[in-house]
Input
Amino acid sequence: MKDVELKMLERAKALLESGEVARVIGWKKGEFIYDPAPASFETVDELKDFVYNWFCGANLSKYLIQASKKEGKTAVFLKPCDTYSFNQLVKEHRVKRENIHVIAVECLGKFDVAKIKAQGVSSIVDVEVQNKEVKVKSFGGETVLNKPEILLTKCETCQKTHQVKDEEIILHDRPERDVNRFAEVEKLEAMTPDERFAFWREQLQKCIRCNACRNVCPACSCVKCVFDNPASGIAAKANDDKFEEQLFHIIRAFHVAGRCTDCGECSRVCPQNIPLHLLNRKFIKDIDGLYGEYQAGETDEGKTPLTSYTENDIEPTDAVNGEAK
Amino acid sequence: MQRIGVFICWCGSNIAATVDVKKVAETIKNEPGVVYSENYQYMCSENGQQLIKQAIKEHNLTGIVVGACSPRMHEATFRKAAEEAGLNPYMVEIANIREHCSWIHKDMDEATEKAVILVRTAIAKVKLNAPLQAGESPVIKRALVIGGGIAGIQAALDIADAGFEVDIVEKNATIGGRMAQLDKTFPTLDCSACILTPKMVDCAQHEKIDILSYSEVEEVKGFVGNFNVKIRRKARYVDETKCTGCKICMEKCPSKKGLNTFNMGLNPRPAIHIPFAQAIPNVAVIDPEQCIKLKTGKCGICQKFCGVGAIDYEQKDTFIDREYGAIVVATGFKPIALDNFNEYGYSDNKDVITSLELERLMNAAGPTDGVLLRPSDGKHPKVITFIQCVGSRDTSGCGKPYCSKICCMYTAKHAMLIREKYPDTEVHVFYIDVRTPGKNYDEFYRRAVEQYGVDYIKGMVGKVYNENGKLMVQGSNLIDNEQITIESDLVVLATAIEPEPSVRKVATLLTASIDTNNFLTESHAKLRPVESPTAGVYLAGVCQGPKDIPETVSQASACAAKVIGLLAKDKLKTNPCVAMADENMCNGCSQCANVCAYGAITYVEKEFRLGGGKTEVRRVASVNPAVCQGCGACTVTCPSGAMDLKGFSSKQIMSEVEAICKM
Amino acid sequence: MLKIAKERLNELYAKISESMGLFIPIKKGGEVNYHVWGEGKEVSLETLKTVKSPKNMFFPQTENMMKFKTEGKNIEILEAGIRKQGDELKPFVAFGVKACDYKAIEVLDKVFLAEPVDTFYQARRNATTIVTLACSKPEESCFCGVFGIDATNPQGDVSTWLDEKYLYWQANTEKGETLTSLASELFEKGGETEVEAQKTSTKAVLAQLPFANLDLSRFKPENLNELFDDTRWEEMSEACLGCGTCTFVCPTCQCFDIRDFKTNDGVIRYRCWDSCMYSDFTLMAHGNSRTTQMQRFRQRFMHKLVYYPSQNDGLYSCVGCGRCVNKCPQNLNIVKVIKTLGGKKND
Amino acid sequence: MQDVTTEKKEFTPNIVAFCCNWCSYAGADLAGSSRLSYPANVKIIRVPCSCRVNPTFVLKAFQQGADGVILCGCHPGDCHYVTGNYYTRRRMALLFNFLNYMGIEKERTRVEWVSAAEGQKFSAVMNDFVKTVTELGENKRLTDLRVKEGE
Output
């Protein structure tokens, strides 16, 4: 990972120095190893805080909406999953492609510090990864953890590859994986309606309506969200009733249906750890099943499944009764 | 502050018998914003409208709700009344308390309660209505008539006579349609060709009419006053401008075994042919399925003999784009297939024929030169049995549930003509009912019975079977209450008619609605019988419902009158209930344009002021109100809610939802 | 000092619940928050930080203020105050409140109980008996010490300490005594030694924490303008998503919005949490007072570290609970702000 | 036992039907002029096209106390606006599936295609839908309790 970081730093410096780009968007060191924050670097000097490590889970593509409006080109480091969001944003004319220099950067999965802490390791100083083994160094000493157990939820089932790149920094191969990203959705589908309702009730009632899921979501790029717009008739701040919890999450999932790239940021940022990605993934699974495989953000053009149709699409009644899978 | 007036109509007893209209009006008085609430016997009447107008003026109403019949009936009436009283016509909402309430509920309390909710819902909506101004769009002064039968011909002639350009698109090689196949017409027994062919010629010679035969409508875009139509001109392999109709090719063509479709397949015809002697245009056409040259590349005889070099084996389908202000659909009908009616033995016995086949057999220009000879052995039939309602009024699912309307009359005609021409022929008619409403119709039928001695048997036929070369018609005589079997030489089936199948495609292209029997739906059965629900599209002839020639011609002329009325205008008021994008909220994501069927949405780069003196250029949607039809597909696609629909705004609908859910 | 064996705690909860509501950290849907105790609920006193702070009990996420009905020009008030369905507010116990969160209540009191008194908040405060719980396993995001809070010795109506075997119980006020008397038969005497030992060992850990020595010296009213104009706000805030996570998990954030909801029978007027991080916060007829995320970001931290203390005798409205440090989606937080702007010692 | 049955009998569901102006609303008109009855608790909101129906409207109806929501539009292929109902079909198939996934009874939502000529069908559909929702009982999972205050 250190070698990747060095290479990235080298490229960032070169791009800034040559004037090819006006800024580089990447991650900046935090107080600990595990709290890097997205940042924009405009000078070589600022790059002293540049970091790329196992905790750089944040998807940087949404920042490009603003960045691509600024003068000069912006270079950005995009992990495989981030490139789908990037394409989707370009498709929706939210990001000006010509203003962005995409550096595809390798990702072997990112860690969730909460999951490490939950295993009893605190005051983490450094991590060292060897295949599936993660040596976590902390004040308390060194602990060996199993990599799959401390990955961010969004990385657990990730099979994504870079969909767009102007150059790439990939130094290590990512092992091929065979995972079913719909396994959790299928588990819920197999439950009875009562069980499903109970499950979502318990999860959604934790919602504090902080809007983190929405604000981090690259598909939620509205200038003004309907939920912030008093004229929409559904604007709300904190949820006052279980209905509002449902309404917000149903409508949000519907609005991003066919556009959600499954980047998993919603679940990463939820302070209450609501598995929000399971909402969006249901739409993805249904779209795949009912209208043919579709991966949002694979390209930066074309219609989404909800803005297209065929004359013989399944009837809603048949769809809910599981006539087609 | 809103000042809403509410007007509850009794509709005589139509509403008042089940809805306590006075109570509704009283209850509604207490609704916030309502300053006037009244009930009256007939709101749509002159007096009712006067009452509304007066109230608008006296009470300074900002919006009105009329609790009455369906808005599809009188919304326009009440809007006009409001406008005359100085209120914007779009500040009117209708609560449908007749079709959706009084007519379907029996319990007075229940219906009254529902009427109150429906009126409240309309109030909730009207409070959020905004005055709308209709825009204007120009009218292209040219009409398209789809179908060149008698309906299309009549409509085209009337429109053209009024001075407007008309194109007739006919899928067959000639105009004339079904009427051209008929021998004589009821109730006057005049010769069909004698009255039709002059009209066909008129069409051909009319300087305002362009006949596009052997052509089909491929694509329709646009809207009333501004239709853009793509027409496919099918390859006929004969240059229409060169062919003189000399028919030498027909004589020389070696492939003569094609089915003469004009004669209902009763005799063969050559691959290159002119459908019938009086065809318009009088131009040959090659059937590519039958032509040796087109199938194998060898032959080319017709080309050799054609004196004017009209034959062109290389001809391809071509497309032309034309603009029209109005469209008349006159696609006509065909007899149903008899696959479901094995009991009549149609497919097994050559001498069981349909009425239309009989028309050809009796026609002087038909396969037998007008001599009635039966198909099997070419002999004169001595006993002829007619069977009525074959596939009509059939609720079993095999046929059609409706009455085909023309069969009783043409069977009487056939019977009469046969008895006239061949008095030694015995004619029996099995019928369920004889339906003869119409001027001189019943007299006509009675002549068949009384003067010509046709044997009418009330009863159904169980089966027709062949016994030793004789057709045995076994049926019941309900009057005498007995089973009878008639030994016949010829059996004629009064086959039900159905819309020409191509109407489905036409309807889809025109977004005109179709009923369960594939007949095109008129806008209103009584008040707007020749208009389709799609503005600018009119219906003539059997495509709208079974009818005979006099009715078809009347309807075609009525259509023409409507079209002329439309084309006479230079500009049309456009529907102001169109989509509109709020630029401040638009993301410019293009999703709305992806679902717009009309291409009404485009994008512009616009500068917006941000805080602190900063500005930002954003891509935002812009709707062309003249092109937008107001469906609202874009509004749901838009995640930010920037796209809204005037007259059916999200706020209005949500407000209606709130009101309608309250018990 | 009293003590109660851990395995008997359920009896204590049950006893309290007989006459009062008992809010206590409970794991539900995988996360620990304050919920009303009930048989079979998964109590988790060991959890250092509940996701939502205990402020939820006095200043709920949403709260109905009144119900009214309009008919013509008349307004009929159907219900007012915190009563729901005519019930008087039942006394309740807030159990397991950490020292930082307890301090946060003091911060809230200064806002809600100052004139004009927020009677909704007041009623809930009056109805509460607060049982605090000392921290024994602080973690690296904690920095309550910076604000003079002793995590090992929390105040409240009752102070408690928890070790492997016992919960140690010390009533501090009359309310505390009353609560103790409700379940006196469950307690035994003793525990002073254990508690002292725990305090000493925890204090040693606290002193070692990475944020133990944050320098706040620059956050003084006299530096207001200078801090406000600092150019570094721009870069500190650039990754901010404008979500409300920090505000909603914060034990001292106290902003709310008042909204109406139409029912079948009138209108419910209620208030709900609001966040200064939101673009529609304090939306007025002319628009927003703060139009950029930098301004909103600056507002929040200036309020915590400068505006509030300047009006409340230097009391910061941050208590160092570290929730925002853990929960910010993009790892921005008040510590980073303090380190950037707080003073020389931070460098 | 008796209590349960009487309770069930007394429950009359609140049904909101969104009907497109060109086909289904006209179909409902035809049901009316043909005097084909259906229960009074079915109430119709007119929209230009079924594609105007935002999922928000559907949820709003449930919030406001609807026990069932049905969308009616022209038959696919016959849309007055050419393609509107094709979008409706996809949107609602996904939305209804999603509501079902959240544990909300799938029988509470429905899409039916009713042409202007199908008064009979309109009435039959509504009768059937009311029957289905009546059997389901009151909507408790997707409703706002505040709405029913004061009842």
User: Anything to note?
Assistant: The radius of gyration of chain A is 21 Å.
